Amino acid sequence: MRYLPLTDADRRAMLASIGAPSVDSLFGDVPESARDPAFDLSDHAGEIEVERALGALAARNVPAGSVPFFLGAGAYRHHVPASVDALIQRGEFLTSYTPYQPEISQGTLQALFEFQTQVALITGLDVANASMYDGATSCLEAVNMALRVTRRPRVIVSGALHPQYREVTETGLRYLSARLDRQPPDFDGTESLADRIDPETACVVVQYPDFFGRVRDLTPLAEACHEAGALLIVAVTEVVALGALKSPGEMGADIVAAEGKSIGNPLSFGGPYVGLFACRERHVRQMPGRLAGEAFDADGRRGWVLTLATREQHIRREKSTSNICTNSGLCALAFAIHLSLLGEEGFSRLARLNHARAAALADRLDTVPGAAVANDSFFNEFTLRLDRPAAGVVDELAGRGVLAGVPVSRLLPGESEAAPLLLVAATETTTEDDMAALEAALREALK
Amino acid sequence: MSAPTEAIRHRGLRFEEPLIFEQGADGRTGVDLPDPPEMRDRLGGLAREAPIGLPGLSEPQVVRHFTRLSQKNYAIDTGLYPLGSCTMKHNPRLNEKLARLPGFADIHPLQPESTIQGALALMDRLAGWLKALTGMPALALSPAAGAHGEWTGLMTIRSAHEAAGDPRKRVLVPDSAHGTNPASAAMCGYEVAAVPLNGRGRVDLEALKSALGDDVAAFMLTNPNTCGLFEDEILEQADAVHEAGAYFYCDGANFNAIVGRVRPGDLGIDCMHLNLHKTFSTPHGGGGPGSGPVSLCAALAPYAPVPYVVEGPDGFRLVETDPSGPAFGRVKGFHGQMGMFVRALAYILSHGIDGLRQASSDAVLNANYISAGLADLMSLPYEGPCMHEVLFDDAFLKDTGVTTLDLAKAMIDEGYHPATIYFPLVVHGALLLEPTETESRESLDHLIATLRRIVERALSGDADAFHAAPGEAPRRRFDETAAARRPVLRWRPPATEDRAAE
């Protein structure tokens, strides 16, 4: 077997030096009734066979890049420069562990420190951690942190927060003492959260741009939160938007929980992605997750270490700020490399290009009879209101080789108002031909 | 922002590399994108006005920067990585290649089901293998890592108890457990109570029995345990746990020792997470991403979180919400770590059941070989064969002035990543070595010889040299206390004269 270096001669010699009669004898502590069950499973296979088997499964999927493609709703298709993937596949990054031994882990640690700085800069906050699993779990961790910081029990969740972020947060609070004030879906953008804040409120959770694509000034809400001693948590599902929009920090956000996938990472059917987590300096000791910090070695040379570990599970156990251990290190590295390539100019240009493509698409689709753009504002995704259920239209268009968007009903099942709504996204990868194909297919389907 | 370049001195292949923020120049970029058209924006009056402060670099600069950084890391690809409990085995590159096929890497999680049948089939196939290997009938694929799987498993257990009208308050965890176990239990609203070990490094059965009661929701055990030993009274533990009406949770971090030889379901385990990034070789990536599917017994299966894959007459379907059913909710965005599923299945198919069994056998053989090669010089706290990792305590260092930490740092100077140190907490000065099955005998012999030389040096009274180690790494020991006292967690631009005058 190609991954196993020991030969039978090695095994015999090793058993002799151990003084054990057989490998089976090393498993003598296993209860007899549980030893060596029969498995009805296949035997080992060479690269050729494995490639063939998995290649056949891959061939049964329609890759986004093979068709006109407009899905978003928390996962956006962007171009990842070739050098990103080449660099993250360097074995020294790919096959190293969490950097517990800083003397021989400066590569990962410095990259994480750069990542943390980038995240802090684009979110407009003071500090960021070394990553969470994804945007949704980052959102839950942000709520848990707000509960610790304020020692209050009530959490207000916007009806324009991504439904899966809301579901993960609900799940996380299910058996804790916190109370969730979950707003109904905000289809028309009229919800008013500031009125709901009371002295029991730990935090308000909103999304920016929101789940329906709308861009709202969060400054008044931040002020209302702070007046009442509550924190404002801002979830961002499309982090490229921060290249074109005022940052959440500038508007007064206390914690930003974002999905970082758009920078450096492929769609990959929803994972692995990379949760971004940023907050104010004064709350840093309540943060979840790993933190890389500057340190100096015995020769006075600058370097980096994992720091403030006394917040973490391996030290604090049941009193830790989170149970998180393994996070999204390599995805965070991909993010750091891609954003380093973009730089200030590239990031801003990428964001403006996304917005321009979405604007062009919105103008086109708004002319289709039976379809109307519902947003007054958006970044690279907007809601299209159709004259019939969107789910059926999406399936019909998929049959014509166009992946048209995400029907809102898929994420908000059981909400009748969601039925005609279609979330449509465009990015720098969307071409004029793609847009024309969607417009034509939609005209045909809505006839 | 220009770097203090005159202060930088490279030495041979050892490069000093400034931060990316110290290298940029305005107007430079490493990505060519077309000019966006002039247009009236629809950003709701919230267009960004202030610059972000990101540095500008070209592609060659970025490639060189991160290549140089990579060269400051120890990795499995560069050497044996005997980090106990972390399972640093070879990461096959075939798995990387397959995960990058557009049919897996370039599909959106919310595409119509008709366009992702291959992805759902892959999830179903992986789940089938994992269910067979664990001997359990159900599996939740979505947890993102081991600790996330623990939390998911305990949430499932709590939901089952709640549904039975019997909410329970406490979770029992052995003293030797990973820190994530109590932390995950606390996140489910449970109180945590510790169970001591016996003199043989296993859970004290009598202590477990007396800790059990009708308020105990679950007992969380790692097996093989964190001392590298198989829990030889596990059947009795299971009986006691079930008799108390509690569920038996297994932390599957060490499943790699027994996969293909023992099915946890046959041991009475009700719920177990698997670390695909340990047992099934998906890369650790300097701290993730991982993947932590959870195997479930029949009684817990109905409470598994969404989403899950079901097979029907028209192919595979994803169940994404279960508003009125018993599923306890959702633990993660979308459907789990698909990229890791592809890699894990490629690993599993490559090994097959015969290869998986051989891998466990070799992992255990390798650990015992290291144990035998060092037992006369170092101190083993527990007798008998170990499983996939061998635990030493620091009794052999008594009166040398050398600590476990010193020994670990000395390993760096000899070209090795240190073992896991000071874990588990149950033995003094723990040193936990896990070679994995992907090391050759020659490689193990070299490690043994090196450790013998280091220990002999320690015993001969060379403590000062140990305190100064490492000297050969890119950096010497850091002042971590100072770093934590005044944490600097991000780069900030140097104060300009204006700001300094403020």
What's this, in brief?
The complex is a heterodimer of chains A (447) and B (502). The model of chain A has no long low-confidence stretch (mean pLDDT 97).
Principal-axis shape of chain A: globular
Q: Which CATH architecture of the largest domain in chain A is right?
A: 3-Layer(aba) Sandwich
Total domain modules of chain B = 2
Distance N to C terminus of chain B: 21 Å
Class of the largest domain in chain B in CATH?
A: Alpha Beta
User: For this structure, what is the CATH homologous superfamily of the largest domain in chain A?
Assistant: Type I PLP-dependent aspartate aminotransferase-like (Major domain)
Q: Helicity of chain B, in percent?
A: 25-40%
What spatial order of strands do you see in the largest sheet of chain B? 1-7-6-5-4-2-3
How do the SSEs of chain A run, as a string of H and E?
HHHHHHEHEHEEHEEEEEHHEEHEHEH
Strand content of chain A: 5-15%
Overall average pLDDT of chain B: 95
Description:
The complex is a heterodimer of chains A (447) and B (502). Chain A has 14 helices and 13 strands. With 447 residues, chain A is an alpha/beta fold. Chain A folds into two domains: 117 residues, Aspartate Aminotransferase, domain 1, CATH 3.90.1150.10; 258 residues, 3-Layer(aba) Sandwich (Aspartate Aminotransferase, domain 2). In chain A, the strands form three sheets. In chain A, strands 1-7-6-5-4-2-3 form a seven-stranded mixed β-sheet, with helices on both faces. Chain A has a four-stranded antiparallel β-sheet with strand order 10-11-13-12. Chain B has 502 residues and is of the alpha/beta class. The longest helix of chain B is centred in the C-terminal third of the chain and has 37 residues. The two termini of chain B are 21 Å apart.
